[in-house]
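Morning run. Coffee first, then this:
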Amino acid sequence: MSFWEYLGNRHQQLLTDAYQHASVVFQCMVVATLLGVLIGVVTYRSDWGGDLATTATATVLTVPSLAMIGLLIPLVGLGVPPTVIALTLYGLLPIVRNAIVGLRGVDPALVDAATGIGMSRPMRLARVELPLAWPPILTGIRVSTQMLMGIAAIAAYASGPGLGNEIFRGLASLGSKNALNQVLAGTLGIIVLALLFDAAYVLIGRLTIPRGIRV
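And here it is:
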């Protein structure tokens, strides 16, 4: 069976797997973004706090994804829970690091001017600092998403959702007539999703970042 015939016969399952893959990555990115920006906001004013946050989230990336998911299985079981926890943890570093860099890079004169017109610290953060730090934060989100697209495939090891199931099925049946088609379909599906997500982020950047501060 040719690759195109395989896609035609399995398109419904492949679309379902692709939707599940995109969904779990999107949901984990939302959680990782909220946590990452929060950690950045809490720690960016302190040198040791920012270093600690960056080091802690970087340490997570030193743990192989297969090992991480394997360690989570006895704690939370199979399926979605270990997938969500692992992906969220892996997605933190670029967002935390870029949030800290972006917030520290805001011109102090602008912060002083906001203080001078009576803005409280939360107002300064929400209306001055975070908007100016948004371009590097968005870059961090893009980097995290690209990483998680690939890492999410490993979730199939724990019966997680997504295109990794197609890849694992192909690897488990190497030598059969559709093994290569399965691996290729899963891999190409992940690449297409990664490109679509990145295109969406480019559009978001154009809509949310004023032309004068685009990087």
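The mean pLDDT is 90. Good start to the day.
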